[in-house]
Design a protein that fits this description.
This protein is mainly beta. The protein is built from no helices and 5 strands. The radius of gyration is 10 Å and the shape is globular. The two termini are 17 Å apart.
Amino acid sequence: MEKYVGQTVTIIYQDKSGAFSKRRVRVLAVDGGRIKAYCYSARGPRLFLAERIMAVQPAA
């Protein structure tokens, strides 16, 4: 994910309950297994665990 810092990407994310969501995020920082990002769906900053990100694609 380090290569996406500063970029907007689309991720498929699995939350702790097992539900999947597709989110458009701007990656702000990567710290170990944690990704700090601005989530456009939630309209605010969010922290994502790398192990729960199932797919990443650069946003169109």
